[in-house]
TrEMBL record:
The lineage of its organism: Bacteria, Bacillati, Bacillota, Bacilli, Lactobacillales. Residues 16-129 form the MurNAc-LAA domain. One of its GO terms (molecular function) is N-acetylmuramoyl-L-alanine amidase activity. This is MurNAc-LAA domain-containing protein. Pfam families: Amidase_3 (PF01520). It comes from the Bacteria. GO terms for biological process: peptidoglycan catabolic process. InterPro entries: MurNAc-LAA_cat.
Amino acid sequence: MTRKEDSTLTPTERIARIKNHYDVCVSNHWNAYDGKARGIETIHSVHAKAIFAQNLADHLASTTDLPLRRVFKRSISTGVDYYFLHRLTGRTETVIVEYGFIDNKRDFNYYNHRSHFNTAAESVIAGICEKIGIKYQPVKAFEKQSLKNSSQASSSIGKRVESTFKGTLRFYNQPSWRDEDVYGQLQKGQGFPEIIEKLRVGSGEQYKVKNSKGEIFYLTASPKYVKVI
């Protein structure tokens, strides 16, 4: 997530939060044209294959009542640069998802139901999981797993936590995911000697940790990126 609150990012700020930090990026948008056009579109880079973009579009079309309009690529042209995320995010594979045409009455009415909105979001999450090789857990299954995880959280207190991420893993000076709160980065195998507690931060979780000098920091608690020893 580039942000968890209602805020505006400049193209430069958006790129800085994405470029080379992640394997994939999904940029979420709504279309608008003439009130008649409708349906799902996904746009991939001219330098990437259409497989991921097609898969996301297929997931959306199969779980919503919206037609699949097209999956395509487009080179930069004169005027407004809508495709800077494709060009400037380095090794991160970016797909732009247009969930429908907000000026089309049928598309608008579909998303006017919160359950439909959530269905579309979950279908994209499922597509991302498939892309990066993680088993997708539906919301209800995830909630049950979260209860199990909460009972296990106390078992990590006082233990060492290390990065298992092949790249650099950020840690923070307060419970946050914001770039301005990043204090430093860990290489794979580096970590902190003591976990103090596990916290819910936004839609994710972090460990409150202490280094050998007694300084407090915050690190993702996702088992995808760290392990407790």
